[in-house]
Amino acid sequence: MASPRQPSGLTVAAIQIAIILAILALWQFGPIDEMLWSRPSLVFPRVAALWQGVEGLPPLSRQIGDTVLATFVGLAGGSALGFVLGVALAEFTTIRLTLAPFLAAANAVPRVAWVPTLTLLFGFGFITKIVMSGLIVFLVVFFNVLDAAVHAPPALLDGVRALGGSYWHRMRDVRIWSSIGAVIASLPNAIAFALVGVVFAESLNAESGLGALMFNAMQRGHPDDLIISALALGIIGLVLIAITRGLQRAFAHRLMLGDATPGGARP
Amino acid sequence: MKIWIARILFAAAVLALWEWGSRIPLLGQLPIFDPFIVSTPSGVARQLVKLYGQSRLAMHVGYTLLATVLGLIAGLLTGFGAALLLANSTLMRRVLDPFIGTANAIPRIVLAPYLLIALGIGIEPRIVMAASFVFFIVYFNVMHGISTIDRARIDHVAVLGGGHRHEILDLQIPVALAWTMRAFPQSVAYAFVGTVFQEFVGGNSGLGSVMIYGLNELNAATVMGTIVLLAVLGLVLLAIGEFIGARALPWRAEIANA
Predict the structure, then answer these.
(1) Quick check: is A63 in a domain?
(2) Residue A128 lies inside a defined structural domain of this protein
(3) Which range of residues forms the domain containing residue A154?
């Protein structure tokens, strides 16, 4: 890190483009397993075919739409519930301390483990995707909000109490505002987890959605669907995170958010 | 003391509702109380004992743990090494940063079908999946740690006659180790998540595969029993992770501001 010479932007960009071209060339012409990875020349016609809807599959546009819609609905529902319960439990200490070990236990279960039970409860359709996505988002947002609301400025809380305010006023006037920053800070992670939740739910043979397309690709004898859906999910993931990062930056100065903690684990 | 009584009462209430909820008039008809879907505590206990008696449960728990630990180690080593390497090459770092950021933003689960096909249903794909989660956690933590080394310390090394080699050995590596330990609990948790997910997608052993087995047999007791075991295992791993993360390298607190 003590190197005084900085490589020029042009050099960096040239190497990056060379790497991308090399990967594309390897993908198209290299000695790779075509059954597994397909080729770019095969992928594009297949995307066009999927877009229209082939072999009884819904059109790709609908598959993408289903996945993205479920992601957003799960994000909204999970965030709202996580926010409300986080603020409430921050205020009601006895309930929070009582429930703490059970919440920790529920949080320790790898999220994918909830899929079979949720599928049995809600079927293979849209509801399961929303519930799964909402559940994951809830767990992320809830613990972040709880932490922020519990650590709301004590001086403000005492001030509300001194002015005769009740638990409701403490929540409404102090804890909620301490927590909004936590929700916005956890947004990129939450949306990434929401997408993952939807794909988890689709991994058990859903009717429609990119996750279903991906996990069923080999059984249907179309390995190119695997890479198409994987790429689509990757692009959607990137776009969603970029959007939420943009929102974060837009609100950061108003809410005085600090730097995000490093090592943002993505699912 | 009162809190513990409240917790025991709450647990008892939940267990009672789980066991006898289907007998409540009207409300008991809801699917959430249906023993076919969620089983009962007694059913789960019986099934776990039965699975343990068949010697399979201990083996599956062992495989999940083994894959988690090996994936954790692999992720720690590769993340640590990659961060150290890129921290010392401005060119490589600037070239590869967008690729690493992109790879991190893509849901890691899209790797699962490829790992399944390329590496099969044994322990190897689970190790790779677990390592893929841990790699990014460690990489970003170590990079952050090294990039925030106080400029004054780097100058001290130079003033004392140390070259770039000393900067790496005496500054970067201790800082990198400190930040790796800081990220240790989270790494343990995600190694576990990655392992179980890969077992779920396709595994011939491990708790994830037990759950799929239970689902295929429509045995809610196995499914719920696996959830309980995963919760216990998850809590134990997290506790171990936090214990090691806090105790290892006692001098790290000064370095990593942790």
Answers:
(1) no
(2) yes
(3) 73-202+229-255
- What percent of chain A is modeled with pLDDT above 70? 91
CB neighbour class for A258 (10 Å; exposed up to 12, middle 13-18, buried from 19): exposed
For chain B, the structural domain boundaries read: 1-35, 39-256
- Span B210-218, mean pLDDT? 87
Least CB–CB distance from B234: residue in A6, A15, A109: A109
Chain A positions in Cβ-Cβ contact with residue B158 (cut-off 8 Å) = 2
Alpha helix ranges (H) inside chain B: 2-20, 35-38, 41-53, 56-87, 90-105, 111-119, 124-147, 151-159, 164-166, 173-182, 184-202, 207-216, 220-247, 252-256
* Mean pLDDT across B53-59: 82
Residue A130 belongs to domain with CATH number: 1.10.3720.10
The Cα A193–Cα A237 span in angstroms is 10
How far does A8 lie from chain B, in Å, by closest CA? 9
Flag whether residue A8 sits within 8 Å of chain B, measured between CB atoms: no
User: Chain A within 8 Å of B249 (Cβ-Cβ)?
Assistant: no
Assign 3-state DSSP to chain A and report helix, strand, coil percentages, each to 5.
80, 0, 20
Written as six digits, the tokens of A79 are 């965030």
Question: For residue A238, which residues of chain B lie inside 8 Å, CB to CB?
Answer: 102, 105-106
Residue B85: pLDDT over 50: yes
Asked if pLDDT for residue A258 goes beyond 70, the answer is no
B64: contact with A, CB 8 A cutoff: no
In terms of C-beta density within 10 A (0-12 exposed, 13-18 middle, 19 or more buried), how is residue B133 classed?
buried
Domain count, chain A: 1
CATH classification of B39-256, choosing from 1.10.287.370, 1.10.3720.10, 2.40.50.90, 1.20.58.100?
Answer: 1.10.3720.10
Residue A185 belongs to some domain of the structure: yes
Sign of torsion over alpha carbons B138, A248, B107, A23: negative
Rounded distance between C-alpha atoms, residue B222 and residue B46, angstroms: 10
- Using an 8 Å CB-CB cutoff, list chain A residues near B225: none
Q: Mean pLDDT score of chain B, rounded to an integer?
A: 87
Is the Cβ pair B7, A3 closer than 8 Å?
A: no
Q: Which residues contact A22 (CB under 8 A, 6 or more apart)?
A: none
Which residue on chain A is closest to B88 by alpha carbon? A1
Task: Tell me whether B191 touches chain A (CB under 8 Å).
Answer: no
Q: Does B211 sit within 8 Å of A264, measured CB to CB?
A: no
Give domain status of residue A133, yes or no.
Answer: yes
Amino acid at A165: G
* A120 contacts in chain B (CB < 8 Å): 31, 37, 220
- Residues of chain A with C-beta less than 8 angstroms from the C-beta of B235: 104-105, 108
